[in-house]
From TrEMBL:
It comes from Aquilegia coerulea (Rocky mountain columbine). Residues 1-12 have a biased composition (Basic residues). Keywords: Coiled coil. Residues 284-319 form a coiled coil. It comes from the Eukaryota. This is Uncharacterized protein.
């Protein structure tokens, strides 16, 4: 009996040692290891499910403002020539171009017509909440034409020596179809689109990788248009821009070969100390060369226009004759500045003035 009890005690000690080595806490009766009674079972308290209160039923139905079919049209059009760091300021207001949208509705100016749209911005001093501020106002120009008005972009500024006329695609721009919201899931409608917008695929995130000159080109861009049936005002111009590399500072001026006398013009610059007496002859020869270049350019432009007209079909001539330009400003709303007093028919140096301002 003693040997049996001793063996029993050793066995109990082994069980206790094993239970203490596990991560579970020891049972409450582990202190009395010789007890022959089973430890009392501890029953877990029943868990209660939390009742989730249903939200109170609203008597009023919930309404969401329905988007207009062409509400994002003005935003889809790239604002050509706007500085990249000013783009966000253009969209700080919720501009309303419902006048542009209405123009495509039945009875509107642009209804069932083939239209090409480009955007631009006009910095203007306008009243904002009782205070006058300079705001970049978005503008959309609509061209009614059976074919794209141009596939080129003009790049020009006071800082640049010469104007550049380059293909749009060099600046990642192109005319692309615009699909109203109601038809964006219908691929067939893309083939029937009568609305084309000037789009730019240059990503703003990649701007930091561009060279400064390339970056600045975007700011100097102007949508280009050439009307072969009308003489360009620059073809008949007798004025040349002069940028003479004088010392200590360059001379920037204009010379009109019909109105200005070369000798008097040069002497005046010497008198005003814009050039030195020793630079007089060089300045005179510089002007003569610029005048020769301008005369040659005017002559070549007239010849090119004459040839283009001769080769043009009657259908194309009629299209140019009937081409219309419409300039849309945002509609006045309580949330946007009043731009009524700053509306202008002038589009840019290539397009000239709009047929109508809305």
């Amino acid at each position: 009996m003693r040997k049996a009890r001793a063996g029993s005690k050793r066995k109990v000690k082994e069980i206790v040692a094993e239970s203490s080595s596990t991560s579970d806490p020891p049972p409450a009766a582990a202190a009395d290891v010789t007890s022959t009674e089973d430890p009392p079972k501890v029953e877990k308290a029943p868990t209660r499910r939390k009742r989730v209160k249903a939200p109170p039923a609203s008597d009023q139905p919930e309404f969401f403002e329905e988007k207009r079919n062409m509400e994002d049209l003005w935003q889809a059009v790239f604002p050509v020539g706007t500085e990249w760091d000013q783009l966000d300021s253009v969209y700080q207001f919720k501009w309303n171009f419902s006048n542009l949208e209405d123009a495509f509705e039945e009875g509107g100016l642009l209804h069932e017509k083939k239209v090409y749209l480009f955007g631009c911005t006009e910095p203007q001093l306008v009243p904002v909440k009782g205070e006058n501020k300079v705001i970049c106002i978005p503008v959309v120009v609509a061209i009614v034409s059976p074919f794209p008005p141009s596939d080129k972009i003009g790049i020009n500024s006071v800082q640049r020596e010469a104007e550049e006329i380059i293909p749009m695609k060099q600046m990642k721009m192109d005319w692309v179809p615009y699909i109203p919201l109601a038809y964006r899931d219908n691929q067939v409608e893309r083939l029937k689109s009568q609305i084309f917008i000037l789009s730019c695929t240059q990503r703003r995130a990649a701007l930091r990788h561009l060279k400064i000159d390339r970056l600045k080109k975007y700011e100097y861009c102007l949508p280009y248009f050439y009307q072969p049936l009308k003489e360009d005002e620059f073809e008949s111009s007798t004025v040349v821009d002069i940028l003479f590399p004088a010392e200590p500072t360059p001379v920037l001026c204009e010379f009109d070969w019909e109105l200005d006398t070369l000798e008097e013009f040069v002497d005046e610059k010497v008198t005003d100390e814009e050039i030195l007496e020793s630079q007089k002859e060089d300045f005179k020869n510089f002007i003569k060369e610029k005048v020769r270049e301008a005369r040659k350019a005017n002559r070549e432009a007239k010849e090119a226009r004459k040839k283009a007209i001769e080769e043009m079909s009657e259908e194309t001539k009629a299209a140019y004759d009937n081409m219309q330009f419409y300039k849309f400003y945002p509609v006045q709303t309580p949330d946007t500045p009043d731009v009524t007093q700053v509306k202008s028919p002038f589009i840019n140096r290539y397009y000239g003035k709009a047929s109508m301002v809305l």
